[in-house]
Amino acid sequence: MRMTRRVAVRTVLLAMFALAATEGHAQGFDPGKVDWAALSKIPMKDLFIRKFNDQCGACHGEDLRGTPLGKPLVGVELLRGDSVKEIAQSIASGAPDKGMPAWSETLDEKQIWNLALYVAEQRQGTTILDKRDNIPLAIPGGPVVTGQHTFRIEPVAGGLDPMPFSIALLPDGRILLTERMRGLFIIGADGKKSAPIRGTPPVYDDSSVFLGQVMGLGWMLDVALHPQYAENGWIYIHHTDRCTDCNALSRRTGRPVSMNRIIRGRIRDGEWVDQQVIWQADKESYTDTSDLTAGGRLAFDDRNNLYFSIGMKAPLEFMGIQDLDQPHGKVHRVRDDGQIPADNPFVNTPGALKSIWSYGHRSTQGLEWNPWTHEMWSTEMGPRGGDELNRLQPGRNYGWPLFTSGVNYDGRPVDVGRTLGITLDAKDAEFPVLDMTPSPALSSFVFYDGKAFPNWQGNIIVGTLRATDLLRLELNDNKVVHTEMLIRDLARFRDIEVGPQGDIYILLENAAGSQIVRLVPEGGLP
Predict the structure, then answer these.
(1) CB atoms within 10 A of CB 376
(2) Which CATH superfamily is domain 170-439 in?
(3) What number is the average pLDDT over the span 491-498?
(4) Residues 498, 501, 504, CA angle at the centre, nearest 5°?
(5) pLDDT in tens, 319-359
(6) What residues does each domain of the chain span?
(7) What integer best gives the mean pLDDT of the chain?
């Protein structure tokens, strides 16, 4: 059964409304009497804050910093542990000898989970669905000292659109930039942005805002250079192709639909020329689900195969992710000219899309080739927790929505297998190299391979969106053995690239004007 986006949204809102309601109000709740327009204007985070304050604020403080009646929950070590599970167990059992009731006697499992998640998110410095795109963007003027290197953050370009997506470094020092609802641009060596490149696929700015999230169709996503760009000039664009009256869904609803598409072309005299379609889905798979969920990354391996990610562009978040005849919830692989490699895992599987490399993905925000292990890796964003770092093995199932440590936005487990009529044995699923709960909203990353920061060789430099931090991950035998915070609370880290001298270019997303900056070692580049 196909559910419309309106029904899907109402399902989420039902959960949010039930969370905010008192126990008495939750009983006999009638969704037909809800003012959905008014409810959609309430920031989702406020619903969680209200619930915490109702139950816990009197003792622990509405800012979680404690009162004479109760200890602080942030800025201190929690004696019973600080994982979501440990916090939930502490809430459920209470501490009667210290005056804290066992909340399991008055709250159900869902409510306890929500309180635990909210506390864990506040300890991390994030709030569910708080984009944090409007925090003041102040670039530190002095050196930033970390465990192995000291660096400076230098501005490269400012005044960019609030919703950028990707950068790619050209050999001559200029930078390609995509802005989701504006198109493709070139940032000059002087930091100035060009006019939009003419002739690229159309993008649309007729988006709407729902629960603080921008919803729209027909966006520009990733941009990448061919590994031999200096010889052939090919530039690859990942965008969402939008059309109206082009499939059964669009004709039935009267609304436009879209789906991820990969093209390549060249730029000549400010114009996009020589366009070729590298990969396009059947238009019957196009949906009216917002491109916010489209994923949309590109990455080449060392044999010029092109990988690209498609997020949960499904009629409903969970539908079709496990189906090999659907494009969404997958990482795909094609040759640089769009042909299907003969060793793709599903080329001989009847009914399967032959481009699929791996599946069972939710929202792949980063995609990078690991030159040391010769494997593609990805970062994947969970709903409320369950962010993942994954090694993408051919033909493997990464479990969404059947296996995740994240939970639905109402705090309940993601348990839709019976509803969808699908099952998956744990031995048939691939589990992440790293799981992060609560969710910092992992985004773009690189495997560092440069001269500017020699002690970071082989490390992952990864940004976050909700947490607005930049992290460094050390790997050993495909396991994360150390995590370091390089930059805290700066901005939403949308994209990361390594320059030819090893300096690190970062695309920062901010509502007041996005920026491109770069990290250079204190003392200058080698």
Answers:
(1) 24
(2) TolB, C-terminal domain (2.120.10.30)
(3) 97
(4) 30
(5) 899 999 999 999 999 999 999 999 999 999 999 999 999 99
(6) 170-439
(7) 88
